[in-house]
Specification:
The complex is a heterodimer of chains A (431) and B (223).
Chain A (H helix, E strand, L loop, with lengths): L4 H53 L13 E6 L2 E6 L9 H5 L3 E7 L2 E9 L5 E7 L1 H51 L13 H51 L6 H30 L8 E4 H10 L5 E4 L2 E5 L1 H19 L2 E9 L2 E8 L30 H11 L3 E6 L5 E12 L2
Parallel strand pairs in A: 7-9
Antiparallel strand pairs in A: 1-2, 1-5, 3-4, 4-5, 6-8, 8-12, 9-10, 10-12, 11-12
Helix pairs in contact in A: 1-3, 4-5, 5-8, 6-7, 7-8
Chain B lengths: L4 E4 L3 H13 L4 E4 L2 H10 L4 E5 L7 H11 L4 E5 L4 H9 L4 E4 L4 H12 L9 E3 L2 E4 L4 E4 L2 E3 L3 H12 L5 E2 H9 L7 H15 L9 E4 L3 E4 L2
The chains are: A alpha+beta (431), B alpha/beta (223).
Keywords (chain B): DNA-binding, Phosphoprotein, Transcription, Transcription regulation, Two-component regulatory system
GO molecular function (chain B): DNA binding
Protein name (chain B): DNA-binding response regulator
């Protein structure tokens, strides 16, 4: 798995800062600890020199002890004299006594000690041990501070890296967001103008692409609107001239009359087809009004009231949608039943769980299994019918139902016929 | 009854075909080929109903509708080749009483004209709703003693609502009674008219107190 860019930037910032601060910490440690040790040695040496001179004058050693861990040995021919912590002279480094004055660091009983030896006038050797615990504690503290600082700075680096990459990638996030909006159909989406010259070019290119896309979409929409206008106008002339002619059908007997009938009925069908076609091409545009609450049973009653009577079984339910679309759905389903199955025999509205089903049943020949998907395609003709349909009725039903957030299908009805089912989300029911 | 219809349409063939077909339906038609001509004729002659195409050269259809509406309550039907929601709403907002989309049958248009010109119901008593006084006989509406100018369609809409005496009137009933629509309850037609009506009779059209919306079904008058 590849790490994300942001993750990588974060890691490298953290790691980079870790390396730099460790080097610095290491150097600091060396310098500080070295210098502190040297200081301690210098002061211990000075002390030992003073003490050695005092020892030559007075024999008491206890008064000269400085710390609780310290010890003083005077190794002379008369035997060793000691004060403070008990130290076996044999355990002292040999060179220290033989080649005094000298300094060394040793460990006695697990405690770090600094040993300073000074020759005395009488051939004896003055040896003093200084406890280094204090210094060791300081070193431990220093080490802890340095390690903590190193880790802290690595973490800070990571945070900084994360923040910097977030900032640096912000235009990309915006780009992603804007591209998403365009993909979602919002062609007005643009990137804000970028001050950074590295990003300005990208933003400008993106925006010009989006603008070109929007312009093209507008041009397409205008073209569709122009076509719509150009088709509607002559059709208006044709259907109305046709209506005038049809009224005078008796004046045109025989062949001319038959031709007239053919012409006018085809013009009417053509007009219906164009209207349906324009409607279906518009159906995917988003100029829908805000969905409103609609009493579905009332819509059904209204549509059916203007047509041949049919049995109704209606529960009173409310759905959310566009009234015009619901009208078209039911009208087209009833038209379809009339054309292909001799008319609907039952229209029902019922609640099933959280959904509503609007069903239109007919007692016609039914729809064979392989045709059940196909009949909802544009210009799919299920055979039969009276040839007056536009071939778009059921396709429009599907478009409208889809826009209403539901689905539509056809199934068998017992004992014969078919049942068209429109299923939508229930808003509320009361009854 | 002789109804004078003026058809404003720049396409000569449509004009002729519609005139012929409307004459067959019993409505003799006068024709105007441009907005200017229509406005000029309407100044000098009287018509009962005007049919206006929205796309006219020069003074366009919307402008004609607006001008006519500012002159009075002459019934106007917009005849449009554009079926987009925004065009429809623009036409209705400009003051049209109804609209039809091409290609339209003269018989449909004739039904619309008849619905628009239908006489008011038989004499009803004056109705009072709060500050509002409706006198169906004279076709007058007063608000707090001051005359409110409603178009004929707005008046009929108000009368239908008032006649129900506070009961709900469904959208379909309104469309059927006021515009003579069979079905195809066109939400926009009713919505725009309700909006126009509220603008004239409500103290605050955004917070109506007289014409109340009943969600999902229709409207009712505050009783």
């Amino acid at each position: 798995m590849r790490l994300t860019l942001r993750c990588r930037v974060t890691l490298s910032f953290g790691f980079g800062l870790l390396v730099v601060t460790s080097v610095l910490a290491f150097a600091t440690w060396n310098l500080a600890s070295g210098s502190m040790l040297r200081q301690r040695e210098a002061s211990a040496t000075r002390q030992a020199e003073v003490n050695a001179r005092l020892v030559e004058r007075s024999p008491g050693l206890d008064a000269l002890l400085t710390g609780p861990d310290g010890a003083i040995l005077v190794l002379g021919p008369a035997g060793p004299r000691t004060a403070g912590r008990k130290i076996d002279p044999a355990r002292l480094p040999t060179g220290l006594v033989e080649h005094s004055p000298a300094t060394a660091r040793i460990t006695v009983d697990g405690l770090p000690m600094l040993v300073v030896s000074r020759p005395l006038a009488d051939g004896a050797v003055y040896v003093e041990l200084f406890g280094l615990q204090q210094l060791e504690r300081t070193f431990a503290f220093l080490a802890a501070v340095l390690v903590a600082g190193t880790i802290g700075s690595a973490l800070l680096g990571a945070v900084l890296g994360s923040w910097a990459s977030k900032r640096a990638l912000k235009p990309l996030t915006e780009l992603n967001c804007a591209a998403g909006r365009i993909a979602g159909g919002d062609l007005h989406a643009r990137l804000p103008v970028q001050a950074d010259p590295d990003l300005a070019a990208l933003a400008a290119k993106f925006n010009s692409t989006a603008q070109a896309l929007e312009r093209r979409a507008l041009r397409d929409a205008r073209f569709a609107s122009d076509v719509s206008h150009e088709l509607r106008s002559p059709l208006t002339t044709m259907v109305n001239a046709g209506a005038v002619l049809r009224r005078r059908r008796e004046d045109l007997p025989g062949t001319a009359g038959t031709a007239l009938e053919l012409l006018t009925s085809e013009v009417d069908r053509f007009a219906r087809m164009v209207v349906d076609l324009l409607e279906i091409s518009r159906a995917d545009q988003t100029d829908d009004p805000v969905p409103e609450e609609i009493a579905l049973d009332a819509v059904v009653r209204n549509v059916v009231a203007t047509r041949a009577p049919v049995r109704l079984e209606l529960q009173s339910v409310v759905v959310l949608g566009d009234r015009r679309r619901l009208d078209r759905v039911l009208t087209n389903l009833l038209d379809n039943a009339e054309r292909h199955a001799g008319g609907a025999v039952l229209v029902s509205v019922r609640v099933t769980g959280s959904r509503v089903r609007l069903e239109v049943e007919d007692a016609g020949p039914g729809v064979p299994g392989r045709m059940r998907e196909e009949i909802f395609e544009r210009f799919a003709r299920g055979g039969g019918g009276d040839g007056t349909g536009s071939g778009l009725g059921l396709a429009l039903v599907r478009e409208h139902v889809h826009r209403l957030g539901g689905r539509v299908w056809v199934e068998d009805r017992f004992p014969h016929g078919s049942r068209f089912v429109v299923e939508m989300v229930l808003r509320s029911s009361h009854g | 009854m002789c109804v004078r219809v003026l058809l404003v349409e720049d396409d000569e063939r449509i004009r002729q075909a519609l005139s012929l077909a409307l004459s067959d339906e019993g409505f003799p038609v006068d024709e105007a080929g441009s907005g200017e001509e229509a406005l000029h004729r309407l100044e000098t002659e009287s018509f009962d109903v005007v049919l206006v195409d929205l796309t006219l050269p020069g003074v366009d259809g919307l402008e004609v509708v607006r001008t006519l509406r500012s002159r009075g309550d002459l019934p106007i039907i917009v005849v449009s080749a554009r079926a987009d929601a925004c065009d429809t709403i623009a036409g209705l907002e400009a003051g049209a009483d109804d609209y039809v989309t091409k290609p339209l049958m003269a018989s449909v248009l004739a039904a619309r004209i008849r619905a628009l010109l239908r006489r008011r119901g038989p004499g009803r008593e004056a109705v009072r709703i709060g500050e509002l006084e409706i006198r169906p006989q004279e076709g007058l509406v007063h608000r707090a003693g001051e005359r409110v100018h409603l178009t004929r369609t707005e008046f009929r809409l108000l009368l239908e609502l008032a006649g129900a005496g506070g009961r709900i009137v469904t959208r379909e009933q309104l469309l059927q009674k006021v515009w003579g629509y069979d079905y195809f309850g066109d939400t926009r037609l009713l919505d725009v008219h309700i909006r126009r009506l509220r603008r004239k009779i409500e103290a605050n059209p955004d917070d109506p107190e007289v014409v109340l919306t009943v969600r999902g079904t229709g409207y009712r008058i505050r009783s």
